[in-house]
Every structure is written in structure tokens, then in C-alpha cells.
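Researcher: I'm preparing a figure for a lab meeting and need a structural model of a single chain. I don't have an experimental structure, so a prediction will have to do for now. The sequence is pasted below. Please return the structure as C-alpha cells so I can convert it later.
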Amino acid sequence: MTNQQRVGAVIAAAGSSRRMDGVDKILAPLDGKPILARVIDAFEECGKVDRIVIVASEQNLKQCQRLVKEHNWPRVAGVWPGGERRQDSVMVGLGHLDNCHWVVIHDGARPLVTADLISHGLAAATETGAATSAVPVTDTIKLAGDDHIIRETLPRHKLWAVQTPQVFRLDIIARAYRQETEAEVTDDASLAERAGYRVKLYMGAYENIKVTTPQDLALAEVLLRKRGK
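Model: Understood. Here is the structure written out cell by cell.
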């Protein structure tokens, strides 16, 4: 990518926290700093990102806006309310990436993302226009029916667990979103796949976990302290 190709980032932070026992995962403290703040710090640290857009739930909108104001991150353009589904929220974010050629989409609940992981994604995406971080699965995966009877043991050496960041040329992911308006999806790469685009996998990090439960938050604390930050 050239210096003229501006890079935007959408941090999807509008999800619910149903499995967090009443704690809001986006604003939950992780070693003394809100999870969302740790995510933004990583994107601010990545010198290739020009503009950061945050999409939050209506419930957390004011708190997230206050957090941004307090930190005065120079590349954060603002915080906007998300939609009912994840893809609705991402679409809101895409609409605020003025003059950007690339977009990095990241889950606001993955606080252990690094600037290097973001940069590697941008490099990988130059091959096909779309890339997602992922790690090879370490467990044996069984395919079962609704009756919980195993139908097949899948070949582990071909299986990857997909994470974020996910990186796209902005025109590719915008077109993919316009083509798929009904089905609910859990990641943006699947939309690009359905639209016929090739998506490159690049090596993520096993520590780049998504905080969904209180146990995840406790694990993130351990991993963060092990990292020494």
C-alpha cells in the first residue's frame, strides 16, 4: 500500500455483555485500565492507522465518549451508536471513514491486540484485498448433528480459529455488506467470502483472546501481566 492510501479503523464495541455477570466488558478494568482504552492504545501506537472510529451501544455511548475525551487520543474521530446486529454497527463505522482506502475492523472486547498484529494484517491484505488474523486450532474438532452424535472428525491441520483484526480494502467490505443484508454474521471475513472475495489468513496470537466471560477477564489479566505492560 502507498503512503496516499489512508487507513481507517473501526472498533466494534456495541455488543452486549450477557455472560459477564452484570459487568460491562468494554468498560471493565483490565489491570487498572478499561478494556476499550487498551484497544484504542494499540491502534494509536500503530503508525499506519490514520483514523479511528468507535461504535458503542446506546447504553455505553456517553461513557465511551467521556473516555475518549479524557484521553484525547489524536486519531480517534469519535464515538457513534451502533445498531442491533454486529454488522449494523460496523456499517455505521464504515460510514465515518472519510477518504480511507483500507479499514481495520477489530472487536472492542479483544484488549490484547498489538500494533504489530495490526501492521501484519495490513501487509497480508495487500495480496487479496482482505485478510484476517487467525491461529491454528490445537484441539481435535468433531462435527456433530443436532442429536450430538459425531458425524465427522475434521482434519485439524486445516482448521484455524479466526480472530480480529480483520483488514479490507474499504470498497471490498462495503460492497460485501451491501450484498448481504439479511443473515446475521459474527465476523466480517465471512461476508467477504460470501461476496466471492479471497480472504488471506495471517498468524494471529493465542493471547489475543476475546473477553466474553469473567473467566476470560481473569485470563486476560494474567496474560497482560506476563507481557509486562
